Amino acid sequence: MNYVYKAITDKGEKREGTIEAVNQELAISGLQRRGLIVTSIQSEEASKKWFEITLFERVPMKDVVILSRQMSTLFEAQVSALKAFTLLAENTENKLLARKLNTIASDLQAGSSIAGALAKQNDVFSDFYVNMVKAGEESGKLTQVLAFLADYLDRQYALTTKTKNALVYPAFVIGVFFVVMILMFTVIVPKLSDIIIQSGQDIPVYTKVVFAISNFFVNYGVFMLIFLAVFVAYIVYLSRTAKGKKVIDDIKFGLPLFGNLYRKLYLARIADNMDTMLSSGIPIVRAIEITAQVVGNKRYQAILIQTMEGVKAGKSFSTALGEHDDIPKLMSQIIRVGEETGSVGAILKMLAKFYNREVDQAIDTLVGLIEPFMIVFLGLGVGILLVSVLVPIYNIAGGIQ
Fold first, then answer.
1. First CA to last CA across the chain, in angstroms?
2. Measured between alpha carbons, how far is 334 from 336 in angstroms, rounded to an integer?
3. Angstrom distance (rounded) from CA 99 to CA 50
4. CATH of 151-401, one of 1.20.81.30, 3.40.50.10090, 1.10.760.10, 3.40.50.2300
5. 207: which residues sit within 8 A by CB, 6+ positions away?
6. Phi, then psi, of 328 in degrees rounded to 5
7. Using one digit for the tens of pLDDT, what is the confidence trace for 271-316?
8. pTM for the whole thing?
9. Residue 201 DSSP code
10. CATH 3.10.20 is held by the domain 1-49
11. Which residues contact 297 (CB under 8 A, 6 or more apart)?
């Protein structure tokens, strides 16, 4: 069980954080062995107020990027790791991150390595991050590694943010359009349909179709909402299973326009991860293994695992990677050139830049195509609805005259 504590050192410095122990007495004993005087301690569950929902308590990628740059700066200034994490905990605005950093500081005081302390906070620091820090500690280049990490995370954050922002506006507009159309079909069209039907005139086929859709929404709308809620819940559940993730990843690659974007995004991530780790002195087999864990796609994860096994069996990285159809031949051939010239890191960095540019261009092209398509789609939807309703009303008005 985790316990949240507040304590002071023998120098009067305040400390806060969490400690894992079987019971409260052992937690207090553990803190006292660290030279801390405990002022308050309680279980993590009890410390949370009723309105604090863990679901919404998280550490954004942006905060991790900033944290990495601050750590790099402090280590470059030769501030001790314990003092650095204590300072960072005191100055961060994210309460969850502050608790994590205090816990890391406590672990460091107890004799843990930086990588070991970070590994315990695996909901904030990925395996990729921890292994990079471990490599930095072992090689004595922790400051440079943290700078590499900050640059890498910054690139990933910028790319992910651009992709999400590109889809926010179209998603919002289409969402509002569907809400308005549902209101039209359930509120406005039923009233107009009564007037048109009572007039006794011949109703066009397209108007009958609109009325049928309206009746369906009015009579079965609740069931549709229930079905939609169950379907969304099932998709969320499916996305958390290994099989479901694989299905969703396959669907991503099969989407028109988006499929190519996703491929380039994952290829850029693979090249960037490998370049960052190899530049930090991590062995290639371990670099491939970590990249497989953090690539974020089941298909490419399987490819990297098979590549790792191929490298272990004696194949070159380019040969093992090039055996898969989802890896462009150009990528494997360029990596082979890097292997022959002893500059794999530089080649991977070039590939990462190339695919990042490709992703940027694909996003710009996608946004350029979505906007006119969206205008045409919305115009057709509104136009068909208006024509279906207004033409019969116009005929009624003409008959009255």
1. 82
2. 5
3. 19
4. 1.20.81.30
5. 196, 388, 389, 391, 392
6. -60, 140
7. 888 887 787 778 889 889 888 887 878 889 899 999 999 999 999 9
8. 0.65
9. P
10. yes
11. 249, 252, 262, 266
